[in-house]
Amino acid sequence: PLLPEDFTFTRPNRYTWLNSDIQMLKTNFPDYREKIDRLKRRLRKGQEITQESFTAVETPLRLLVDQLVSLGAKSDIYNLLNELQQALKITGRNLVLQTLPERPASPERPAFHERPVFPKAPAPQVIPLPKDFIFSRMNRRNWADSDIQMRDIIYPDFQRKIDRLKESLRRGYEIKQEQFDVVYTPLKLLMDVSVSPQAQHALYTLIQELRQAIQMTGRGALLQALPAPPERPALLSPRLLEDQGIPDLPPLPQDFDF
Predict the structure, then answer these.
(1) Average pLDDT over residues 220-229
(2) Residue 239 domain flag
(3) 22 in the Ramachandran plot: left (φ > 0), alpha (ψ -120 to 50) or beta?
(4) What is the per-residue pLDDT for 77?
(5) Which domain, by its residues, includes 64?
(6) CA 171 → CA 165, 175, 184, distances in Å?
(7) Within 10 Å of residue 37's Cβ, how many Cβ atoms?
(8) In a domain? residue 175
(9) Mean pLDDT calculated for residue range 53-76
(10) Per-residue confidence (pLDDT) for residue 100, from 0 to 100
């Protein structure tokens, strides 16, 4: 059946969201608006909705409830997820629904005549990154194919954001906390889900160097905890040679000169 005309979806109020929450939404669910509107339209028109197409909307929303910081953002996403599940049940669709997370606390909204007052933090004293500070070059040719695909899925604009952050560090531009977090958080996530030691080591090195650059330039960004260092990838270890069926290599002659 069609969704009743008097069934209304709550409209999210992103004016109550933190900038970091808006960035988190864009990073983790870049096609959010397109998929939500399409799902609502199919519910209104009584069109078919497959389990796969609904899960592709439900799962990112479910994760966002846990990842977002502000109560306004958490409450908006929770209400949307709850209303979509209710709409599926009302229209008699036999789909498997994930368990709703715990309902977040309702945000305290100021009266219409009140304007929230936020104290201004003193401007941080920052300096450009020294010219002799070098970022390691990332070599993705020795990454597993699955790691490259995972990077493209989780962090599609990886190179652009990394380059922009490095440029801001070099030139001494202001870097806000949320600007650093939207780069730093996906890097840590990628390191956790990557399979090959080469990918893990490259991502760990980049995370470590970005932290060092932030500290050297006097920025007061609240850095997340540095993850444990991964195992250094073996290049030509005896075990690797044996696995590849390559005999032990002879030593370099003493009279060989580089």
Answers:
(1) 68
(2) no
(3) alpha
(4) 92
(5) 14-90
(6) 10, 11, 19
(7) 10
(8) yes
(9) 91
(10) 86
The answer to whether position 167 is within a domain reads yes
Give me the half-sphere count of Cα atoms (radius 13 Å) on the Cβ side of residue 136.
Answer: 14
Q: What are the C-alpha distances in Å from 179 to residues 2, 72, 171, 175?
A: 43, 20, 16, 6
Give burial (CB, 10 Å; 0-12/13-18/19+) of 68: buried
In a domain, 251, yes or no: no
State which amino acid sits at residue 168: S
pLDDT at 169 over 70: yes
* Structural domains counted in the chain: 2
Per-residue pLDDT, 52:
92
Give the CA angle between residues 7, 13, 15 to the nearest 5°.
170
Q: Residues 70, 146: one domain?
A: no
Alpha carbon distance 217, 175 (integer Å): 11
At 241 the pLDDT is 43
Residues near 4 by Cβ (< 8 Å), separated by ≥ 6?
90
Per-residue tokens: 43: 């519910």
109-139 pLDDT, tens digit each: 544 445 555 555 555 566 888 888 899 888 8
179 — pLDDT class (breaks 50, 70, 90) = confident
| 3-class SS letters over 153-177 | HHCCCHHHHHHHHHHHHHHCCCCCH
Same-domain status, 220 and 149: yes
Structure tokens, 189? 């996530």
H/E/C letters for each residue in 185-216?
Answer: HHHHHHHHHCCCHHHHHHHHHHHHHHHHHHHH
